[in-house]
Amino acid sequence: xxxxxxxxxxxxxxxxxxxxxxxxxxxxxxxxxxxxxxxxxxxxxxxxxxxxxxxxxxxxxxxxxxxxxxxxxxxxxxxxxxxxxxxxxxxxxxxxxxxxxxxxxxxxxxxxxxxxxxxxxxxxxxxxxxxxxxxxxxxxxxxxxxxxxxxxxxxxxxxxxxxxxxxxxxxxxxxxxxx
Length: 179
Prior knowledge:
3 helices; 89% helix
């Protein structure tokens, strides 16, 4: 090939001229140096920022995930505590309700006994009053009847009381004997 060049024949387009090769290499190294000095640090800086952003984003995401997990655990604990408190309050309310029911029941029983006692007392009072009224009416009738039978007036109060008492005592004895 060198022989071909030395003959002065047509130059092979694949083999460049030596000056062109030197100038091309020199320009290539100048451009490569300028790009290496100016562009490569910017590219490295941008790549480093992206790497930091990605790694920082991953770290932040992991931290956020940990925070979310911790917050979720806190909420679960608070929810469990709230449920426990609600159960405790419900139990207290049931106990208070049972106590109130028992108190009301005993109060109702007491009031019922008071009413029954007052009723018995009223009945006894009415019975005594009726007995007293009956005694007076029967005494007066007995006095009038005895006066008609005896044929004399029994208007004397002391005599009248003795006759009435005797008559009623006899009636009570007969009533008790009949029982």
